[in-house]
Amino acid sequence: MPSTLRIAFRNLGRNGRRTALALVAIAIAQTAVLAIDGLMNGWVEASLEAMTGPMMGHAQLHHPDWREERGPDLVIEDADATLARIRALPDVESAYARIYAPALAAREVDGRAVVVVGVDIAAERGPGGLLAGLPEGAIPDARGALVGSRLAREAGLSVGDELALLGQGADGSFANDLVRVSGVLQTPIDLVNRMGVIVHLETARDVFVMPGQAHEINVRGAGAPDEAPALVAALRGVEGADALEILTWRELAPQLSQFIDIAGVYGLVVMMIVFIAAAAGVANTMLMATFERRRELGMLLSLGTSPGRLVRIVLAEAVILGLFGVALGTLLGAGLVLYQGAVGVDPTTWGNQEESMDVAMYGLNWAATIHPYLRPADVLPGFVGVSVVSVVAALWPALITARLEPMEAMRG
What are the residue boundaries of the structural domains of the chain, listed by start? Predict the structure, then answer.
């Protein structure tokens, strides 16, 4: 076997230009695969973090009819007690109660439709909360409010402005209040950015007559997002939650869930392109090398070299060519993804768009800048796949070699 490898290395070096071109073709293909994998990894992670973080957590609890009708009276009764029991579960990392109340907001004369969002501001400043990373100085007081970035821009709102809120209480009564804008907020929830007026949970309860009630309990588990079904099973056993609708994040946003799953299929398509490029490069190189060395191969056969030995040499050349090409491509691709991960990639600036802009889809909003990264598992398929493809691509040249007639080959 060592002599077979030495001969294979020597044969690849005979036509350095052709070998180099095949190596470059395979390396470029592997670099492209790793670059796409890195982008997909970064995009999926950002999307999952936004979806299973402040937008919807890993699971949510509502009144059975609330998601369909959004009626202010479709509430979770005794929400604080239920929330305390949920937070006591060992599989729960965090849980928040929220209120969503449609209202009319007016700064002076003209009003506009908004959604008043009542949240536990202290709790939701933690990881995964709607207000994660909110500075201490931006926390509103009992009569203060945070407004969505797009709402503030379109309505001309700034810190210090007063807003009159008019709506309907959960009991059917007329609800109104006066709040002061204490900050402008950009969140992963497009609805909040466009129409959100965020106030303290107790303030919303007072204004909309919802004592101890909530419209939603947002739960984030201690495990991965895909462990949400087990989390839901645990939530169904909580006292006070048995009569509520409890759904995983995939059930809450099936379209986004499918969109994320498609990213994996897209990666497979790109990988198939790499394998085709590798097969074409290896097959072309091996076929040309076989025809160029017909006399040499015929002489080896006439001297007693077995056809099997020649086949092994051709296959060894193919595997070496494929592995070296993938190794070179892996180094280039890993370096490219490492650089992109550090500086970020913003697809919205590609083409004629000069300025970066946030992306909104299916109610989800996140920064357009992606930070690609690679996992060890992203590299392995290239090595394994190209090794297999190289052997398959070299089978035809190897069979041609095995069927050579020594005298005819030496004359040709």
Answer: 2-51+257-411, 57-251
